[in-house]
Amino acid sequence: MLINYYCHLSHKERIVIYEYLYQGCSIQKIAPVVGYHKTTIYRELHRNSGKIGHKPGKAEHTYQLRKNIGQLNSTKIQN
Question: Which residues contact 54 (CB under 8 A, 6 or more apart)?
């Protein structure tokens, strides 16, 4: 199984993670299925889970907000 390094999870991958979590699978079993290290899955759950758990749609929205804010902050001011 090819492991992705330093790549962002797609919305589809977040849905797969959610489905496996819902079925009661462990992070160690989910990671090879989606092709990421277990640390990436833990990070996803830590950053994008709320009081009611991990929701892929909300996680994708939060990711896009962080991405856009990062792009705005990295824009140089030109004279």
Answer: 14, 17, 18, 21, 44, 45, 48
